[in-house]
Amino acid sequence: MNSLRHVKQGEGLYLSWKTLVDTSLIFFPFGPSYCRQLRHSNLVQMLGVIVEEKGGLYIVTEFMAKGSLVDYLRSRGRSVLGGDCLLKFSLDVCEAMAYLEANNFVHRDLAARNVLVSEDNIAKVSDFGLTKEASSTQDTGKLPVKWTAPEALREKPLKDVVPRVEKGYKMDSPDGCPQIVYEVMKKCWTLDAAHRPSFHQLREQLEHIKASELYL
């Protein structure tokens, strides 16, 4: 992602633009103009789409000074980022996803690399090129295995992964993760999709953990 500087009414407004190499991944259910209307304090605001005559495609968004969440976390580590900070980022993401959920949108690739951090340390979900309207059909293209629901993997040639998950296997708790947070994570990995918490429910659970300081 590259940054641009756009001057408007005498004030500097920083923007970002992303060049899309594989345009087959892009799916705007109601067109880019509709996606621009998706506004939330924890969503990276899409400002426009540029289409070149030669086929080039660029997405213009607000500028996020501290880059992706995955790089932000890796460059600082647990000695710098405490549980309160990590919980705040989790809540930021839940806020954005609950908003998309309420608008019947599903993010196809929610991961730390697709969450950006602003200058004032607000995490915002990005990359709406990989957002699609919720429907009864499931795209079983290339998916990140570790955080993909089992039902989306059943038609893939993953002979070792799916049977283990269906027998109840769950990843171990990350180092330093409070048990109460790990219990929430395991609920998200429930085999029956109907029994997994919604993002609205996740937000409520994490807010309770934060307010009660149960993560300490």
From TrEMBL:
One Pfam family per UniProt: PK_Tyr_Ser-Thr
Q: Which Gene3D superfamilies match?
A: Transferase(Phosphotransferase) domain 1
Keyword set, alphabetical order: ATP-binding, Kinase, Nucleotide-binding, Transferase
Q: Where is the Protein kinase domain?
A: 1-216
Q: Does the keyword Kinase apply?
A: yes
Q: Name one GO molecular function term.
A: ATP binding
| Identification of the protein by name | Tyrosine-protein kinase CSK
Query: What is the originating organism of this protein?
Result: Ophiophagus hannah (King cobra)
What is the organism lineage in this UniProt record? Eukaryota, Metazoa, Chordata, Craniata, Vertebrata
Annotated gene: CSK
